[in-house]
Amino acid sequence: MPTAQSDEARRQVVTFTFFKVLPEWRRLAAAERGAMREEFAAVVNKWAGSNEMTLLTYSTVGLRANCDFFLWRICYSPECLQSMHAEMMRTRLGGYLVTEHSMLGTTRRSLYKIGQAHYQDVEAGIVKGGVGRYLTVFPYVKTRTWYQLPFEERQRIVREFIGVGEDFPRARMNTLYSFGIDDQDFIVVLESDHLGDFVDAQMRLRETQNSAYTERVTPVYCGIRSTVEEMLEQIG
Description:
Blueprint: E1 13-21, H1 23-26, H2 30-48, E2 54-59, E3 69-75, H3 78-89, E4 97-106, H4 120-124, E5 134-142, H5 144-148, H6 151-165, E6 172-177, E7 186-192, H7 195-205, E8 214-216, E9 221-226, H8 228-234
Antiparallel strand pairs: 1-3, 1-4, 2-3, 2-9, 5-7, 5-8, 5-9, 6-7
């Protein structure tokens, strides 16, 4: 059984950050709001166009009460994430944003033999985002009983779990690791051009043995892939 990842592996550091716009912002004059949107978009586009970070933007307007949009950021150091976030929050629009939730994780090579092309990124420990129109993301916490099972038994249960996923080839999955750096064990990301894939897959996965060792999979955020300009236009 593999127990550690090589120190030579360069892990990606990933955050999902969920924002709510204060009602006071929508009461400002339209020209003022437009200028704030342009300033904010310029910062996001600068980082998205850099070699330091992959940055994807999603609108949740009308989809969840406590969130208007979220950012998926992928880079190679927490300092990079922190610098981008600080610059973004120094904008005028940043003063009207509330961070409702955030999730921090890293990549690493999976302990389990997955062996399907659809899950090669999961097994290799890399993240490639932005392949679907819709995205759903949630924290994943396993019970402590799970970690006491023999590795061979966990491998069998994971193989059953992956088998269900193979029945939904239009949905792509990424798994990130949060042990010791955030509240959850994992972050699970599903992307597809078909929203119903998420519902149907999750209903099937509830029936697997893996579900018996699941402690928490909430909150769940569902977003629509947008350019930063489209995302900001949706907020008002």
